[in-house]
Amino acid sequence: MGEVNLSQVMDRNRSFVDRIIEESGQDIRQCYQCAKCTGGCPGAVHMDYPPNQIIRMLMLGMKEEVLKSKTIWVCMGCNTCTTRCIRDIEVAGVMDILRQKAIKAGYIEHAKGVISFNDSFLWTVRSFGRLFEPGMAIINNVRLGNFMKDMQFGLPLMLKGKASMLPHRLKGRREMANIFKKTVQGGK
Ligand code: SF4
Ligand code: SF4
Question: Whole-prediction pTM value?
Answer without folding.
Answer: 0.78
